[in-house]
């Protein structure tokens, strides 16, 4: 499978277009409904989902699109397709509803169970991260574009840890208590991975539930930046598992 710059740039434009639709909702009244799994859904999740599914289906008709907001038949494609887009149109819906800016648009290309390309767009910051193993990782904002790399803690430096703002579990707190000295920054959505990928955090332990679409794009960005996203057994997170839930994991430099 060939990932050309043209394809990557086109997919980035799709994420950014979805981001503009999300901001259109963010600036007005937000209608919140509750899904079967009790998680919130807004008209912004649905608008972004529609834009992304339509645009990616046109861009790469050979690869199915599986989104958090897809129906069950489309979601099941992740169990059989060799190569597919895995999308979270609006990660951090709770942060979106709170209007704290910590939400992202996430497009991952999965090939043979691995995220080979990830795009994470942060609408409020007009900021996009992308990358993958063998591609490197990049960030682009109004200030310009640059390659990004993870930055392991320097000797004597306090460990910078990122954790969920809305879903920090007791198990994660027990893990943190075993770390010695650390500084915890709470952030919503897949932004946590991006802070690690660009060297602003050292560790993101997630001993709690996430779904495959929450992690795939940002895992590719971390891996392209030289970092790792691993289960507690030290295996890279994989996709197309029989369960949509990921095992607990740690993202690290
Ligand atoms: N009990 C649970 N089961 C499955 N996924 C959960 C969950 N609690 C949180 N998540 C996932 O965590 C994501 C938010 O991550 P964070 O807590 O790091 O901001 C949510 O994404 P959405 O906002 O897209 O629903 C959701 O998918
Ligand atoms: Mg999500």
Automatic annotation (TrEMBL):
<feature type="binding site">
    <location>
        <position position="88"/>
    </location>
    <ligand>
        <name>Mg(2+) 1</name>
    </ligand>
</feature>
<feature type="binding site">
    <location>
        <position position="91"/>
    </location>
    <ligand>
        <name>Mg(2+) 2</name>
    </ligand>
</feature>
<dbReference type="InterPro" id="IPR006240">
    <property type="entry name" value="CysQ"/>
</dbReference>
<keyword id="KW-1003">Cell membrane</keyword>
<keyword id="KW-0472">Membrane</keyword>
<dbReference type="InterPro" id="IPR000760">
    <property type="entry name" value="Inositol_monophosphatase-like"/>
</dbReference>
<feature type="binding site">
    <location>
        <position position="68"/>
    </location>
    <ligand>
        <name>Mg(2+) 1</name>
    </ligand>
</feature>
<keyword id="KW-0460">Magnesium</keyword>
<dbReference type="InterPro" id="IPR020550">
    <property type="entry name" value="Inositol_monophosphatase_CS"/>
</dbReference>
<comment type="similarity">
    <text>Belongs to the inositol monophosphatase superfamily. CysQ family.</text>
</comment>
<keyword id="KW-0997">Cell inner membrane</keyword>
<dbReference type="InterPro" id="IPR020583">
    <property type="entry name" value="Inositol_monoP_metal-BS"/>
</dbReference>
<protein>
    <recommendedName>
        <fullName>3'(2'),5'-bisphosphate nucleotidase CysQ</fullName>
        <ecNumber>3.1.3.7</ecNumber>
    </recommendedName>
</protein>
<feature type="binding site">
    <location>
        <position position="68"/>
    </location>
    <ligand>
        <name>substrate</name>
    </ligand>
</feature>
<feature type="binding site">
    <location>
        <position position="88"/>
    </location>
    <ligand>
        <name>Mg(2+) 2</name>
    </ligand>
</feature>
<feature type="binding site">
    <location>
        <position position="214"/>
    </location>
    <ligand>
        <name>Mg(2+) 2</name>
    </ligand>
</feature>
<keyword id="KW-0378">Hydrolase</keyword>
<dbReference type="Pfam" id="PF00459">
    <property type="entry name" value="Inositol_P"/>
</dbReference>
<feature type="binding site">
    <location>
        <begin position="90"/>
        <end position="93"/>
    </location>
    <ligand>
        <name>substrate</name>
    </ligand>
</feature>
<keyword id="KW-0479">Metal-binding</keyword>
<dbReference type="GO" id="GO:0008441">
    <property type="term" value="F:3'(2'),5'-bisphosphate nucleotidase activity"/>
</dbReference>
<feature type="binding site">
    <location>
        <position position="214"/>
    </location>
    <ligand>
        <name>substrate</name>
    </ligand>
</feature>
<comment type="function">
    <text>Converts adenosine-3',5'-bisphosphate (PAP) to AMP.</text>
</comment>
<dbReference type="InterPro" id="IPR050725">
    <property type="entry name" value="CysQ/Inositol_MonoPase"/>
</dbReference>
<feature type="binding site">
    <location>
        <position position="90"/>
    </location>
    <ligand>
        <name>Mg(2+) 1</name>
    </ligand>
</feature>
């Amino acid at each position: 499978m060939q990932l050309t710059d043209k394809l990557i740039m086109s997919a980035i434009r799709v994420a950014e277009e979805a981001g503009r639709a999300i901001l259109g909702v963010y600036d007005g009244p937000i209608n919140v409904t509750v899904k079967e799994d009790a998680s919130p859904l807004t008209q912004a999740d649905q608008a972004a989902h529609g834009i992304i599914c339509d645009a990616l289906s046109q861009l790469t008709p050979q690869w199915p699109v599986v989104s958090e907001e897809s129906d069950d038949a489309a979601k099941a494609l992740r169990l059989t397709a060799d190569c597919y887009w895995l999308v979270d149109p609006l990660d951090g819906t709770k942060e979106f509803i709170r209007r704290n800016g910590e939400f992202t648009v996430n497009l991952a290309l999965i090939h043979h169970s691995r995220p080979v390309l990830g795009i994470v767009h942060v609408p409020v910051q007009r900021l996009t991260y992308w990358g993958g193993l063998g591609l490197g990782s990049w960030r682009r904002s109004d200030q310009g574009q640059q390659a990004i790399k993870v930055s392991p803690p320097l000797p004597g430096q306090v460990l910078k840890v990122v954790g969920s703002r809305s879903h920090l579990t007791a198990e994660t707190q027990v893990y943190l208590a075993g770390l010695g000295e650390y500084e915890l920054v709470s952030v919503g959505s897949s932004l946590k991975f991006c802070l690690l990928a660009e060297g602003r955090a050292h560790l993101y332990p997630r001993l709690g539930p996430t779904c495959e679409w929450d992690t795939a794009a940002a895992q590719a960005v971390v891996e392209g930046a030289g970092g790792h996203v691993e289960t507690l057994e030290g295996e890279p997170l994989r996709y197309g598992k029989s369960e949509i839930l990921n095992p607990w994991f740690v993202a690290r430099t």
